[in-house]
């Protein structure tokens, strides 16, 4: 499946536009071929020709040019099927184009150098505390760690993607507000780009989680999905008709601030009874009988201890509130798949099954489509890091 992000393109085979100048057509075909290899992996020239809608001579010219530039290689498949000589496979060279992915969380920053094909070449992470959580401190530490990773791996990042748990303006990476970090009006894209000297793109963390699931997770063949993640707060990312739903200037995805319990607990956003006050990390701690500020490791360990229970009753109310919000999301968005990420991935299977049943029974849309799938993320804690890498690769694959 070909997936196009950003720009004006859509899904489907990205064949060259009729009437395009030869140099434009070559760049288009080159980018399309690299995108195919990056997302779906090695394949033969014949497969590339068929999927991209290009003739053999065009594929030959593009592959030969990329091979000469050291961007792809060709090799016999490891496993051979059938008689006769197998066709050569076209493989991307991971280090031919490298991006830096950064996932800024409330308590930790993770970063990785990622090569074509999504291969993580090296990674680094560090914990955040009140003093080290300021934008300036985070930017400085990212720059220093990027330099160390670059020297260690002998690679240079050609672009940077950053995931932030907040309201982010998509065109320039301006963080309007990231309450759990204590950030407001931070020109993160501009400031980080000035330090790293490469293009930087910044997006909301849940949006990038949705992107990661669509490109490399369980939603690879799903064009309509919602990704819901729980950390300190709750966020959501939406893929609609195969493309990210970003709203005005990228300000979309604050699903955690759906009001599900009018007059409920106060939320930092100024409202009361927001969904994240009932299903965020603090709410989960209360349900488990833990202090609201219990360390993440303790929370996950407590959830894991419940995995064998058929009916972990302590989480009944939590499951009801999780389902209540999901019913609204499903009725509004009509996704084929809902992916639960981050802390939700540690929920016992019996709890997820209960939530799934409640949504199927109480959502008009879910009943109409035969039951919306609700699954936990296979990418786990790496989802937003993977999404940040894919965001950075959007312009890089065009320029290789």
Automatic annotation (TrEMBL):
Pfam families: ROK (PF00480). Residues 1-13 have a biased composition (Gly residues). It comes from the Bacteria. Residues 1-25 are annotated as: Disordered. InterPro entries: ATPase_NBD (IPR043129), ROK (IPR000600), WH-like_DNA-bd_sf (IPR036388), WH_DNA-bd_sf (IPR036390). Belongs to the ROK (NagC/XylR) family. This is ROK family protein.
């Amino acid at each position: 499946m070909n997936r196009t992000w950003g720009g004006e393109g859509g899904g489907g085979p990205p064949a060259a536009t009729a009437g395009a100048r030869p140099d434009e057509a070559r760049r288009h075909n080159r980018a399309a071929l690299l995108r195919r290899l990056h997302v779906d992996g090695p394949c033969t020239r014949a497969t590339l020709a068929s999927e991209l809608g290009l003739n053999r001579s065009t594929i030959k010219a593009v592959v030969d040019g990329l091979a000469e530039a050291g961007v792809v290689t060709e090799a016999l498949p490891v496993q051979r099927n059938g008689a006769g000589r197998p066709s050569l496979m076209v493989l991307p060279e991971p280090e031919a184009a490298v991006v830096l992915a950064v996932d800024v969380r409330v308590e930790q920053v993770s970063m990785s150098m990622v090569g074509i094909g999504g291969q993580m070449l090296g990674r680094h992470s560090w914990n955040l505390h009140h003093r080290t959580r300021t934008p300036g401190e985070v930017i400085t530490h990212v720059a220093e760690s990027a330099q160390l990773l670059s020297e260690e791996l002998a690679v240079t990042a050609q672009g940077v993607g950053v995931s932030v748990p907040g309201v982010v303006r998509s065109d320039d990476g301006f963080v309007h507000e990231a309450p759990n970090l204590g950030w407001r009006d931070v020109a993160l894209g501009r400031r980080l780009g000035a330090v790293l000297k490469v293009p930087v793109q910044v997006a909301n963390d849940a949006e990038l989680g949705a992107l990661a699931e669509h490109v490399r997770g369980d939603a690879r063949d799903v064009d309509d999905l919602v990704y819901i993640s729980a950390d300190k707060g709750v966020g959501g990312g939406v893929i609609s008709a195969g493309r990210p739903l970003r709203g005005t200037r990228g300000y979309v995805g604050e699903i955690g601030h759906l009001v599900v319990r009018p007059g409920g607990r106060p939320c930092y956003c100024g409202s009361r009874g927001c969904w994240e006050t009932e299903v965020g990390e603090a709410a989960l701690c209360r349900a488990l009988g833990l202090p609201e500020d219990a360390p993440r490791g303790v929370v996950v360990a407590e959830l894991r201890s419940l995995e064998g229970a058929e009916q972990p009753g302590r989480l009944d109310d939590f499951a009801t509130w999780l389902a209540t919000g999901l019913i609204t999301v499903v009725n509004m968005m009509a996704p084929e798949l809902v992916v639960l990420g981050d802390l939700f991935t540690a929920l016992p299977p019996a709890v997820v099954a209960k939530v799934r049943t409640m949504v199927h029974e109480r959502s008009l849309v879910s009943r109409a489509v035969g039951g919306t799938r609700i699954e936990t993320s296979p990418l786990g804690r790496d989802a937003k890091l993977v999404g940040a890498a894919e965001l950075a690769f959007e312009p890089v694959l065009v320029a290789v």
